[in-house]
Amino acid sequence: MAERRYTKTYEWVIVDGKTVTVGITDFAQSQLGDVVFLELPSPGRKLAVRESFGVVESVKAASDLYSPVAGRVTAVNEKLTAKPELINSDPYGDGWIMKVELTGDLPADLLDEAEYKKVAEAGAS
Amino acid sequence: MVGFGGWELPQQYTSIRDEHLAVRKAAGLFDISHMGRLVVEGAGAESYLQGLLTNDLASLAPGHAIYTLMCKEDGGAIDDLVVYREAADRFLVVVNAANREKDTAWMRRHMPAGVSMNDHTEDMSLIAFQGPRAHALLPRGSSTTDDIAYFAFRPGKIAGVAALISRTGYTGEDGFELFIESGRVGDVWDAILSHGKAEGVLPAGLGARDATRLEAALRLYGNDMDETVNPYEAGLGWTVKLGKGDFIGRDALAKVKESGPRRNLIGLQTAPGDIPRHGAAVSNAGRRAGVVTSGTHSFFLGHPIALALMEGPSLRVGEKVTVEVRGREAQAEVVKLPFYRGSARSAVAPAKS
Asked: Residue B13's domain is classified under what CATH number?
């Protein structure tokens, strides 16, 4: 499986050819608290890098989700409709949010695991 | 951790959902030591407090507590508080953390000779053990609580440690608020959790406290009311005893009662995902008519709930309004309060207010 990469805004991606799976990181879910609802994009929607594509509602607040890549939405995780808590319990697995087909290159500023850890640690302090 | 009234409180220990459900199904343990604890005593203490507070302490026997508001001359609420009568001339007054300094300044300003007030917020801690099974799940070394009625209290022991045991709370459930010397409170905390662990008892943070109090429609000062809101508007007219004699705000409140409040606090329910947040606009028939004062997703009920302060006469249960959620209008239905009636057998929130 391809390696996971990250954004400074606490999203993660796994790139497999032209298909990119997108979710939010463990740090993001821990900051949000219990997730109760997600507003997800419709398949087919075109997204620009850093475009807001949905909303995650936790008990604390509503937060926008930003697309780490430019592309077209091919699938959203329907399981999250009934079980939004998967975002909390398995953010890197069953809590994935959407799949996007790339329409351009990957952004150059995606972070690897070590770089991301520094960002998350800075955010936590 | 989140800041709350000058204190650092845990939003959650594990998960708000799990802690919330523990309180409703078994019991949860809250550290509420941020609440201010003031002891007022002296020969004139009763008449002094009678002149400051809206509720009537005259018929309050030692060993009993009462929920009341403290208002300004214009009837606006300075704070909501619980007064415990320990003896004829000695009262324990529990106030909101964020209001402690404001309250003590106000109370000192009106204090006559012969009455004293001491702040015990630091040396006396306060924890709340709340849930339908709290009574059954007190640890060994605890006094019997069978004969402590709702809104009554008594000195005793919890897990072998001296405690003032009060059958009060802020969750809608049966349970206890325990006043314990700060040096020993950690022992009691640990004993309650280890004894109850196998039965589903969890430590519960501010998130679960806010969700359970909102389901029970218990008001949160600073959200649901402030100095611009009077008790009748907040739906707390039952705490105002106009016939007890003079008190600060009485004349203004008598006028409000006669003409009817300009605004009313109501309950709203929305579809899953449409969580009304504090400050969101509420519209009725396309016209802005009020504002959400508290809102959350209720894990226990399975949908969002909210309190809203609405202009004009109270809306009827079942009426439809709209509320702003994430920049759009979501439909909401007016529902009866409280949203959920737990195991607490109420002396504090009569059905009719």
From this structure: 3.30.1360.120
Strands B90-95, B77-87: pairing kind: antiparallel
Please name which of B148, B186, B190 lies closest in space to residue B168, comparing C-alpha atoms.
B148
* Nearest residue of A to residue B297, measured between CA atoms: A59
Does the beta-carbon distance from B17 to A61 stay under 8 Å? no
Which residues, 6 or more positions from A65, have their beta carbon under 8 angstroms from its beta carbon? Answer: A11, A24, A52, A53, A54, A55, A56, A97
Closest residue to A57, CB basis, from B17, B275, B299: B275
Find chain A residues with C-beta within 8 A of B299's C-beta: 34, 36
Domain membership flag for residue B129: yes
Whether the CB of A39 is below 8 Å from some CB of chain B: the reply is yes
The CATH architecture of the domain made up of A4-106 is Beta Barrel (2.40)
Question: Is B249 within a domain?
Answer: no
**ipTM, two decimals:** 0.76
Whether B277 and chain A come into contact, CB under 8 Å, resolves to yes
Please tell me the pTM assigned to this model. 0.90
Q: Does residue B167 sit within a domain?
A: yes
Q: What is the pLDDT of residues A8-52, one digit of tens each?
A: 989 999 999 999 999 999 999 998 989 999 999 999 999 999 999
